[in-house]
């Protein structure tokens, strides 16, 4: 569909045929009725899409004197959408319907004799539908050279239950085991020692991962480039590609795959969004843009990918997107998140971006690329001050991390990706020690609690003036600890604290619990409180989740930022501790989080459930769906608020293990109203998702509802 093609036709009839008797069809439709897309009429009624040209019928006598006719012709295909680039959104949604196998048939209507050949109409040569990915991966594994280790794993299921394909390619299995079981623990526990070992050549052979991903599944080249690349790497000994040298002169690189795999492990998340690839959409099946969800992590696909990034701690992370006409390769413009060690990111990631860009343009029709960090204005609006994007999320793990936006949706842009990734790979191969030491430096600052001023230069205001990290009155931007109590005296929302601890663990942040009551200043933190000791490699990410955030209001525009600040956004109490070593020897590492059950004290017939957390809403929705009696307080009282719930003890007993609820006996001294199960009609994807999560019963038509939640303004309240 993105390039004009000529198919040579050669058919032999064992008798004499006449041109006027030949009927040409494609997919059962007359050839001439195939038309290109008409943007005006919004249907396929444009120019001729298929043409039979150079038709020749050569009739000869064979040895036995019988006549036979040889029919030759060219089947020429035009551009179905009158463009070589299918990236415009209006077209991108059209092409999936047209992909498929079609029979080209030549029929002699005078004899009913026919010739048939099946042809595939595709977006571009290497485009694969979701269902074609796994069979092709299997084929790649089968055809791979024997000295390459390949492992397939499904790292999770999409909303609709499709596998998230994940491929690891390395020299051998022991290289992968050694990295995950020996190198990573050292990286996380003692990065400084590991730096020394590398400097003293005491580490021996080691390998570091390059992690490749695609999220926006309708930015199709990012998926196909990974399979194309995998094919190359698993079948060729030496891969040749062109790039530019320091003087911008074209030069050829011979990348030896054995050398590469002696130093690098490839980790490929073919697409983070399987449902998106299936339906050719940007969003997942819940309607969420996964490349805005890495901060909040609400979607199953996001949970799976962040777990893998936190597990692999890649030295380089490449997120394959489209479409920016200038061929965009990050790093980004300001404002930068002050939790990054940006001096360490800026140097190596920018150099790697050039390696990608030079390789990307030297082997394709493209002749330039752009790096927002260098090429855009300070207010350029392509910033990385949020972990919402996967590319910026991976920066928090010390990776040279890039979102890469190819210009077009066609084979040229697939090839640009393949070469860009080869350029990125050569860059890691050539600078392995230096790049890994730099990532370990990022980690080391964390462990040492170091607020290195070298990063300040990169934290600028909208005028480009360095403002450094916002330290307030403190010397160190980072606190010593955060404490998240789970005692109701110091904590208003226990379930949300528990969710946050699970969140932190998933993201590679270490969390401890306090083994005894400990007084710091005027506060006694009770035994059992969660403590985030900020002396750790992922402290920057912990801080992003738990601190107030930055004020970037002076910037003209930002791309698609989110407020993190989980304590305020999710509503729990969080205590910043600035005193050094106050919990030393008192912390025990948390491996998992057990749900805290609701303890029912006293013996009242009815209990108040305070409307204080999401568990309260979920538990009430569960009781209502089971037709249990539920009431709400009709006015405030001393200890309770209008809108708190009242339920029977016997019903509370049934759900108390499942939910963490604030309850107290109900003394019948406050007026109540009976609550009925609401029938909720919601319009937008986000509200539907949230309401489902909270256990509301959703109806499909507004007329069947008694509550309408309309966040996109499309419901008809009549
Ligand atoms: Zn994208």
Any overview of this molecule?
With 718 residues, this protein is an alpha+beta fold. Strand 31 (679-682), helix 19 and strand 32 (697-698) form a beta-alpha-beta unit. The strands form 9 sheets. The protein has a 7-stranded mixed sheet with strand order 8-9-13-10-14-18-15, sandwiched between helices. It has a 5-stranded antiparallel sheet with strand order 24-19-23-20-25. It has a 5-stranded antiparallel sheet with strand order 29-26-28-27-30. The two termini are 46 Å apart. It has 19 helices and 33 strands. The model has no long low-confidence stretch (mean pLDDT 96). Zinc ion binds at residues 216, 219, 291, 321. This is Peptidase M14 domain-containing protein. Residues 126-428 form the Peptidase M14 domain.
Describe this protein with a few key phrases.
binds zinc ion; five-stranded antiparallel sheet; seven-stranded mixed sheet; 5 domains; 19 helices; 718 residues; Aminopeptidase; alpha+beta; single chain; Immunoglobulin-like; 33 strands
Give the topology.
Layout: E1 5-13, E2 22-26, E3 29-30, E4 50-61, E5 67-77, H1 89-92, E6 100-108, E7 113-121, H2 130-143, E8 149-157, E9 163-170, H3 173-189, H4 191-199, E10 208-213, H5 221-235, E11 238-244, E12 250-256, H6 257-263, E13 264-269, H7 274-279, H8 300-312, E14 316-322, E15 328-329, E16 333-336, H9 342-362, H10 372-375, E17 383-384, H11 390-393, E18 400-406, H12 411-430, H13 432-448, E19 481-484, H14 494-506, E20 512-514, E21 518-520, E22 523-525, E23 530-533, H15 539-546, H16 566-569, E24 575-577, E25 587-589, E26 606-609, H17 614-625, E27 630-633, E28 645-648, H18 649-655, E29 663-665, E30 672-674, E31 679-682, H19 685-693, E32 697-698, E33 707-709
Parallel strand pairs: 10-13, 10-14, 14-18, 16-17, 31-32, 31-33
Antiparallel strand pairs: 1-5, 2-3, 2-6, 4-5, 6-7, 8-9, 9-13, 11-12, 15-18, 19-23, 19-24, 20-23, 20-25, 21-22, 26-28, 26-29, 27-28, 27-30
The structure holds zinc ion.
Zinc ion is lined by residues 216, 219, 291, 321.
């Amino acid at each position: 569909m993105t390039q004009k093609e000529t198919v040579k036709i050669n058919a032999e009839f064992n008798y004499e045929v006449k041109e006027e008797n030949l009927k040409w069809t494609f997919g059962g439709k007359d050839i001439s009725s195939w038309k290109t897309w008409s943007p005006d009429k919004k249907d396929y009624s444009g120019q001729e899409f298929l043409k039979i040209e150079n038709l020749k019928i050569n009739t000869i006598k064979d040895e036995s004197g019988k006549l036979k006719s040889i029919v030759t012709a060219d089947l020429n295909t035009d551009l179905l959408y009158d463009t070589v680039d299918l990236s415009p959104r209006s077209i991108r949604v059209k092409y999936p319907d047209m992909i498929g196998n079609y029979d080209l048939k030549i029929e002699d209507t005078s004899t009913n004799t026919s010739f048939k050949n099946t042809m595939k109409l595709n977006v571009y040569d290497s485009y694969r539908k979701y269902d074609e990915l796994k069979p092709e991966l299997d084929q790649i594994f089968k055809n791979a050279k024997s000295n390459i280790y390949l492992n397939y794993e499904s790292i999770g299921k999409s909303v609709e239950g499709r596998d998230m394909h994940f491929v690891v390619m390395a020299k051998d299995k022991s290289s992968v085991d050694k990295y995950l079981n020996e190198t990573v623990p050292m990286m996380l526990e003692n990065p400084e020692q590991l730096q020394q070992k590398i400097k003293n050549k005491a580490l021996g052979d080691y390998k570091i991962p390059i992690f490749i991903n695609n999220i926006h599944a309708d930015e199709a080249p990012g998926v196909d480039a990974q399979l194309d690349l995998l094919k190359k790497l698993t079948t060729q000994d030496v891969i040749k590609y062109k790039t530019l040298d320091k003087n911008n002169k074209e030069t050829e690189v011979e990348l030896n795959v054995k050398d590469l795999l002696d130093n690098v492990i490839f980790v490929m998340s073919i697409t983070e969004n399987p449902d998106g690839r299936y339906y050719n959409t940007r969003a997942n099946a819940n309607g969420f843009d996964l490349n805005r969800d890495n901060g909040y992590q609400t979607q199953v696909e996001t949970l799976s990918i962040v777990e893998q990034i936190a597990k692999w701690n890649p030295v380089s992370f490449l997120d394959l997107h489209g479409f920016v006409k200038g061929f965009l390769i990050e790093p980004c413009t300001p404002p930068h998140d002050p939790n990054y060690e940006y001096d360490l990111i800026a140097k190596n990631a920018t150099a790697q971006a050039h390696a990608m860009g030079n390789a990307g343009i030297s082997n394709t029709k493209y002749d330039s690329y752009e790096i927002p960090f260098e090429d855009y204005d300070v207010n350029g609006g392509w910033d990385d001050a949020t972990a919402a994007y996967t590319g910026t999320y991976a920066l928090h793990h010390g990776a040279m991390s890039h979102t890469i936006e190819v210009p077009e949706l066609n084979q040229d842009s697939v090839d640009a990706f393949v070469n860009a990734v080869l350029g990125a790979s050569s860059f890691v191969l050539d600078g392995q020690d230096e790049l890994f030491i730099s990532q370990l430096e990022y980690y080391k600052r964390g462990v040492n609690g170091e607020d290195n001023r070298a990063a300040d230069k990169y934290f600028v205001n909208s005028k480009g003036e360095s403002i450094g990290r916002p330290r307030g009155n403190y010397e160190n931007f980072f606190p010593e600890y955060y404490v998240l109590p789970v005692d109701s005296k110091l904590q208003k929302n226990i379930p949300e604290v528990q969710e946050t601890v699970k969140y932190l663990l998933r993201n590679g942040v270490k969390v401890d619990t306090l083994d005894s009551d400990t007084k710091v200043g005027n506060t006694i933190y009770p035994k059992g409180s969660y403590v985030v000791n900020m002396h750790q490699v992922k402290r920057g990410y912990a801080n992003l989740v738990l601190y107030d955030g930055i004020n970037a209001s002076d910037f003209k525009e930002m791309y698609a930022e989110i407020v993190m600040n989980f304590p305020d956004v999710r509503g729990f109490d969080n205590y910043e501790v600035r005193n050094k070593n106050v919990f030393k020897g008192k912390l025990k590492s948390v491996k998992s989080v057990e749900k805290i059950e609701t303890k029912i004290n006293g013996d009242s017939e009815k209990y108040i459930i305070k409307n204080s957390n999401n568990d309260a809403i979920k538990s009430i929705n569960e009781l209502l769906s089971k037709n249990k009696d539920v009431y709400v307080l009709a006015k405030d009282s001393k200890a309770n608020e209008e809108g708190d719930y009242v339920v029977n003890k016997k019903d509370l007993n049934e759900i108390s293990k499942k939910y963490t609820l604030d309850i107290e006996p109900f003394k019948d001294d406050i007026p109540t109203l009976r609550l009925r199960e609401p029938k909720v009609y919601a319009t937008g994807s986000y509200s539907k998702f949230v309401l489902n999560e909270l256990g509301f019963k959703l109806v499909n038509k507004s007329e069947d509802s008694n509550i309408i939640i309309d966040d996109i303004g499309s419901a008809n309240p009549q």
